[in-house]
């Protein structure tokens, strides 16, 4: 069009837009959101399996049973179940925030308004980091010596979520970059 502006982006431009950091941030946020939805769904629909996990970790019954550490054990079923329910509630809240953030990315990419999406993603991703980093590494791994258990050790699984959420958080905060015409 001579003298005017083209209303729609050329197919090549639309395709190359998929390679921008905001699109990568949106996809990573959606990936973590999906993972958290499935984690929460699994813990709700298969309540007993991970309930046993939490009970054994808190009871410290499969650790080295060092007398200087065993005073930390929580053997009360009521407290164990309360801890497990708190984990599930945190997972559901994290998933909800991340699903909302993914929606904000989808809307923001079309309107070129990404600040709300970045902030919502940051909240959800930090929630995941708190759950798996502070909760599983710090509290479960160190305080309750989960690392000593060959049967009830969730540190490898938690590491995957920490790495994914941490990487997503970095990408979410990458600058969008200068837009240059070819």
From TrEMBL:
<keyword id="KW-1133">Transmembrane helix</keyword>
<feature type="transmembrane region" description="Helical">
    <location>
        <begin position="120"/>
        <end position="139"/>
    </location>
</feature>
<feature type="transmembrane region" description="Helical">
    <location>
        <begin position="159"/>
        <end position="178"/>
    </location>
</feature>
<feature type="transmembrane region" description="Helical">
    <location>
        <begin position="21"/>
        <end position="41"/>
    </location>
</feature>
<keyword id="KW-0812">Transmembrane</keyword>
<protein>
    <submittedName>
        <fullName>Membrane protein</fullName>
    </submittedName>
</protein>
<keyword id="KW-0472">Membrane</keyword>
<dbReference type="Pfam" id="PF09933">
    <property type="entry name" value="DUF2165"/>
</dbReference>
<dbReference type="InterPro" id="IPR018681">
    <property type="entry name" value="DUF2165_transmembrane"/>
</dbReference>
<feature type="transmembrane region" description="Helical">
    <location>
        <begin position="82"/>
        <end position="108"/>
    </location>
</feature>
């Amino acid at each position: 069009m001579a003298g005017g502006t083209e209303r729609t982006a050329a197919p090549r431009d639309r395709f190359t837009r998929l390679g921008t950091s905001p699109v990568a941030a949106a996809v990573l946020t959606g990936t973590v959101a999906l993972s958290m939805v499935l984690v929460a769904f699994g813990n709700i629909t298969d309540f007993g399996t991970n309930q046993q996990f939490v009970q054994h970790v808190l009871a410290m019954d499969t650790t080295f049973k060092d007398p200087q550490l065993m005073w930390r054990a929580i053997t009360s079923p009521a407290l164990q179940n309360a801890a497990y329910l708190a984990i599930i509630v945190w997972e559901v809240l994290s998933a909800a925030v991340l699903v909302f953030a993914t929606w904000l990315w989808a809307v923001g990419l079309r309107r070129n308004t990404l600040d709300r999406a970045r902030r919502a993603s940051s909240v959800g991703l930090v929630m995941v980091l708190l759950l798996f980093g502070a909760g599983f590494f710090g509290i479960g791994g160190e305080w309750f010596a989960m690392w000593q258990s060959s049967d009830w050790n969730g540190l490898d699984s938690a590491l995957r979520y920490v790495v994914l959420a941490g990487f997503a958080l970095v990408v979410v905060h990458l600058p969008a970059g200068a837009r240059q015409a070819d």
